[in-house]
Amino acid sequence: MRRFQKSMLFRKLILLLLALGLLASMLAGCQTESSYEPLTEEKIKEIRTAWETATNPPFGSRDYHYRLDFTSPDHYYGTHGDCIALFYGSRDADAEMLYDILVADSCFHSSLNAPMLYIYRDGEFKLITVAYEDGWLTKEQVASMAEHHKTTNNYCNCRDDKG
User: Fold this and answer.
1) Are both 6 and 68 inside the same structural domain?
2) Residue 121 and residue 48 in one domain
3) What is the residue range of 134's domain?
4) Secondary-structure percent of the chain, ordered helix, strand, coil, rounded to 5
């Protein structure tokens, strides 16, 4: 009888370890951290190729992406999990002409009355608002992008913060 109990306990322990291993391997693909490490040339080429074949290319023009410097903090807003954030907007816009765009309780200024922060993932582009609504981004990742936007653009993220 005692041997049977030990055998059952051992089997339960093995099943628990297998379940934990399976869970760990499933979660390994879910990266949520934000990184501002430079993109590789291979990744930049992938983005440019996806841009060329996009049905509705971001930034309005199929060739505009050649003018964007994906190595510049002005345009590259980091890698967030498996998403890459790319900004398009005027750096010289008059502060009175900027619009506040609210995404996940984070505020971005844009020279256009639309969020000009695009998220790239697996060959697809989405506006940041849509990417957040579709679950591509977490609230924390959006906040990280907003802080980068504030630092890069030398102005507050929300008009109320201007003081």
Assistant:
1) no
2) yes
3) 32-161
4) 45, 20, 35
Q: Single out the residue of 111, 77, 73 nearest to residue 91, CA to CA.
A: 111
pTM over 0.85: no
Digit-by-digit pLDDT tens for the chain (163 residues) are: 666 677 777 777 676 666 655 444 443 333 457 788 888 999 988 988 887 777 555 555 555 555 567 777 777 888 999 999 988 765 545 556 667 778 898 887 766 655 578 899 998 889 899 999 999 999 999 999 888 877 666 555 455 444 3
| E strand spans, 4-133 | 34-35, 76-80, 83-87, 99-103, 106-110, 117-121, 124-127
Report CA 35 to chain centroid distance, whole Å. Answer: 10
Same domain as 137, residue 92: yes
